[in-house]
Design brief:
The structure is a homodimer. Chain A has about 625 residues and is of the alpha+beta class. Chain A contains 27 helices and 16 strands. Chain A has 3 domains: about 200 residues, 4-Layer Sandwich (Aldehyde Ferredoxin Oxidoreductase,  A, domain 1); about 160 residues, Orthogonal Bundle (Aldehyde Ferredoxin Oxidoreductase Protein, subunit A, domain 2); about 190 residues, Aldehyde Ferredoxin Oxidoreductase Protein, subunit A, domain 3 (Orthogonal Bundle). In chain A, helix 2 runs parallel beside helix 24 and helix 7 runs antiparallel to helix 23. At the A-B interface, helix 1, helix 21, helix 23, helix 24 and helix 25 of A face helix 1, helix 21, helix 23, helix 24 and helix 25 of B.
Chain lengths: ~625, ~625
């Protein structure tokens, strides 16, 4: 190998109880650098289309990247990749924290888990020694108990554990995976896939180092970077208020998702704000490996709900979903909901979105107190919200229906209910208004994952003088939200595509989106420099952007193989209806514009305008010609 | 403007005798950085399709780039861009030397010349003072006399002059433009366009500096760069033997174009080699602005031809075209032919190719001694070759026919002759065998310029371990020629596309292809660093590669607007026939493979598979949506 980068893939067959280590070689890692790009490679090669996501034939992949674990802010993340039980398409969901660096220190880039254990197990990775362990003691336990018991059993407090809770065991379709009880691979039901495999947790301890080609450069750059990052991320507001710093600003702009997307303005948003959290219930901020920003929250409350600080505190998305989206203005209730989600292993976005759906169904008589077991499930009922979190995790009563996600629940409840189901491709939509942020809405529509907010993290309407040409997209992107009337133009679609590839590249490298995306002081040049210093490669932003494009292309190929069509690239009707109140009252997306933009976007991506499938020529351009036969094109 | 890069465009209307200076602003230069990308912008905006390339409605643009004139090896070039009288498509032809830096020192990025002077003129650019001057004294004169007279008239020996000779005045369709009598904008008839406008020369003197954002970095990098460049370019063989260092190597590999592409092996190639030139007739090597390599030759001979050293010496392409292609093994005759071409302003490649065509016609009885005025026009007749150069420039006898180029000459001579016409789109093919270098052949086929060797400068069959993935294309490319059997595969087509965009980017920046293309020690990272230090931008290889792709897209759009179809993307039959002799005897291209690859390549480029026209989506992606109406798509 010319540069010497090497990496190991751990493969665990739970059916056969077989553990193997594969070394696919440097060229493989150059082609599939990590995260879901690497994961999608294995899924596309090894999964048959049409398999049951919750059956033994699905595989679940935990993938760091070639740069993960370097002591640099934001280089701590990993993706879980599988076929989603929520959408039936590809799942890619990422978490920060401390688990992924440990995996790298133990010597692995990724873990492929296949098959299905006969009885509950967990995986114990102790550097080179890997064991499938009995999980009897932890099955049925929440994530906190699970972590405690495993650490006791293995006798090491420093073991990092990614586990699901009861929600995963109960196959809630949006059950999630957490490490350190608060860093969630939240979306698309990866906890359910673990549950279906009788896999409760993966515990990992690594004593090695990651092998960096130029440690000195990494160290120097990391030091400078950490300081700059801290100084520049939203003027330190993120350190002080967490991601919840957005609540007030978005509400003032009229774009805080409220009442199941009926509006973007929530009168009592102030009660949910990051400022309020810091003043009233914050214990401390916490961060991820090698990062000084500490954007994670730790909260503690006694009344009216007792919230255990070990489960962290609510992020912006959680406050949106369990709070404003349900018209709940009680930060303590939201914090309790968050704690429960983290204990049970529930995705807070899908949970809150499902509860809001149920609330709207209730208010419109689609369901009633008989269905809810007596709960007055009205918007704003904070106690009902907390109760429903519990019911969903346990699949009790109405919770059993909502555990299927809003798409499936609405199918069962009938046509009226479908109007209240805010999802794309079966995934509940995240807490960004797809009208106020029109290109985020477009991302919900065409994104491979569904209602995911990380397709294009930010909107694409930038300051004209500096950014009215796409060439500027190669730079870190200024976080400027679009607040004027919705509308499509060629420039926005172009910017969407480039931004999408840009964020996709960061996901492929398993980077924190805060690290390089929105902050101008940390340039793409620095990123390339770091990638090169770690791997020993002579990479470039060109190569990295192509890596991002490759990931999107692979995702598309996966979904097409599963039978997805352009019909699946759609938005809920509500996002074509006007925002009900607030500063953006009356704003709506134009359906025809969005449909036209969709076809144009397909063609721009090298996909067939009619079918949305990647063309042979695009697969070849992306060095993915092995997919031509798979897609029968 | 955010960064502060500014540039001026000089516009000269020869009909109205009007001179204007335009400042299109920084964003314009960020979008169209220079060379033919900038030139194509004006042609696409301002030319009506279908106009006569030799009429007053054509425009001719002399364009440096945003980085030209920085004191760095290879940053000295400029492009002449116009509608070609040879192909009817877009022309882009570049030269190094000293003229372009002077243009920048005088304060201009580019000159647009339009209209037609009533009587012969030349242009005199003396910093801010620009004059249209009477050219009576120099009309009818060769380039050497022209340069001498202008310098005397203006009283400054340091004035740099780009001029054409009698060939341009006589509208030889492949008449060229030279600066310093030896740096040629050789191809596609830019001398004829000047002739048609009664524009003999452009003289320029600049006393300013180019405005660099970070002079210190440029200086440091330039110093390091110059030394590395010199040390690493083909182990200094280029310094010692000029580009002619290739002659022996290519012949030994069986790929030296010989006998009008009948074969790739010339028995007497040794007589034409760079080694022989250095031993026997070399006066000295000469270089371009700020470059220590000195790859240009200066030769002097007395017998049997007297060659004046001021016109330089033959390059590899010239030795191929006037030498082996005509089976002429006399380096003195080739040097004389070269001197005459540089005096008259003739492109040596088209000239030699046209003479070989005539020789094959003569040997096959298509023309005879009556046509040639008594010349025994057989392959290997060096004296006949020299005589024909003279006749072509003066359009005397058979020279008048050959001055039209092989496509038009063959049309007049009939079907038999067409088999001997080695052109693509009307441009005579350069001195690289399109079978031995299969992807260079593909470049002749699909390239926008015709038989140009700079579409993909090098072949794409690289060492597997290091380069079998396109991601490696972002690095400087190892010059590894393909010598095994011809054949297409997906990887080659992918690499072709990326390499094409890569070289196109270098042309857009008006860089010497030797500077960044083939030498691994000078990385793309350095190029990006230099571009940024000069312009003050935060560019990236991604942006630069997109600039390259944009140029190719604009060229395609121009040609499509002129009526070019996929039929025009073709190769002469001979390149589908086996090489007659030598190490690669029997090697041929497969027509079906090439046709299939062509359609795949169209689709890869975002062009319509059937028509070859850029799709709306690609124009939008390239920030060229203003071309949608132009192309009526």
């Amino acid at each position: 190998m010319p540069h010497g980068y090497s990496g190991k893939i751990l493969r665990v067959d739970l059916t056969e109880e077989k553990i193997e280590v594969e070394e696919p070689g440097e060229l493989f890692f150059r082609k599939y650098m990590g995260g879901a790009t690497l994961g999608a490679y294995y899924l596309l090669k090894e999964l048959d289309p049409g398999i049951d996501p919750l059956g033994p034939k699905n595989k679940i992949i935990f993938a760091a990247s070639v740069v993960t674990g370097a002591p640099v802010s934001g280089f701590c993340r990993y993706a879980i990749v599988s076929k989603s039980p929520l959408t039936g398409g590809i799942a890619d969901t990422q978490a920060g924290g401390w688990w992924a660096p440990q995996l790298k220190f133990a010597g692995y880039e990724a873990i492929i888990v296949e098959g299905q254990a006969e009885k509950p197990v967990y995986l114990w990775i102790d550097d080179g020694e890997v064991k499938i362990k009995d999980a009897k003691k932890i099955w049925g336990k929440d994530t906190g108990e699970t972590q405690k018991i495993i650490r006791e059993e293995l006798g090491d407090e420093k073991i990092r554990i990614a586990s699901t809770g009861q929600a995963g065991e109960n196959l809630v379709r949006y059950a999630c995976v957490l490490n350190e009880l608060k860093h969630a691979n939240g979306r698309l039901g990866m906890g359910a896939v673990m549950g279906s495999k009788n896999l409760k947790a993966i515990a990992v301890r690594g004593s090695g180092d990651i092998n960096m080609a130029d440690e000195k450069t990494v160290g120097e750059r990391a030091k400078w970077f950490a300081q700059n990052f801290k100084d520049n991320v939203s003027n330190d507001r993120v350190s002080e208020y967490g991601t919840a710093e957005l609540v007030n600003a978005l509400n003032e702009g009229g774009m805080l998702p409220t009442e199941n997307f009926k509006t973007g303005y929530f009168e009592n948003a102030e009660n949910l704000s990051g400022e309020r959290m810091t003043e009233e219930i914050l214990v401390k901020g916490e961060g991820c490996y090698a990062c000084p920003v500490k954007c994670k929250r730790v909260v503690k409350t006694e009344e009216p709900y007792e919230v255990n600080p070990k489960y962290g505190g609510p992020e912006y998305e959680t406050i949106g979903a369990l709070g404003s989206f349900c018209c709940v203005d009680d930060l303590v209730a939201v914090s309790k909901g968050n704690e429960l989600c983290n204990k049970y292993g529930l995705d807070t976005i899908s949970t809150g979105n499902s509860i809001a759906f149920a609330m709207e169904c209730f208010e419109n008589g689609v369901i009633d107190e008989k269905d809810t077991g007596g709960i007055e499930l009205e918007f704003g009922n904070s106690d009902a919200m907390v109760k429903l979190v519990d019911k969903i995790a346990k699949r009790e009563g109405i919770g059993d229906l909502l555990a299927e996600g809003v798409m499936r629940a609405a199918e069962k409840l009938g046509e009226e209910a479908e109007k209240y189901a805010m999802h794309s491709k079966g995934e509940e939509i995240a807490m960004h208004d797809g009208r106020a942020k029109g290109m985020v809405g477009f991302g919900y529509m065409v994104g491979p994952l569904g209602g995911d907010h990380v397709v294009v993290e930010h909107d694409t309407d930038f300051d004209e003088s500096a950014l009215d040409t796409w060439v500027e997209q190669a730079k870190p992107l200024a976080l400027i939200e679009r607040i004027e009337a919705a509308g499509m133009d060629y420039q926005k679609i172009r910017q969407f595509m480039y931004l999408q590839n840009h964020f996709s590249m960061m996901d492929s490298l398993a980077l924190c989106v805060f690290s390089f995306a929105p902050v101008r002081t940390l340039t793409m040049e620095h990123l390339v420099e770091l990638v090169n210093a770690i791997t020993g490669w002579e990479s470039s932003l060109w190569e990295l952007m192509k890596q991002g494009e490759k990931r999107v292309t692979m995702f598309r190929a996966f979904n097409v193989r599963e039978g997805f069509t352009p019909e699946d690239d759609s938005l809920p009707d509500r996002l074509y209806e006007p925002i009900k109140s607030g500063p953006l009252k009356g704003l709506a997306n134009d359906r025809e514009e969005y449909e036209e933009a969709k076809r144009l976007y397909y063609e721009m991506m090298g996909w067939d305008k009619e079918t949305g499938a990647p063309k042979k020529s695009k697969l070849i351009e992306m060095d993915l010609e092995w997919l031509i036969d798979e897609l029968k094109i």
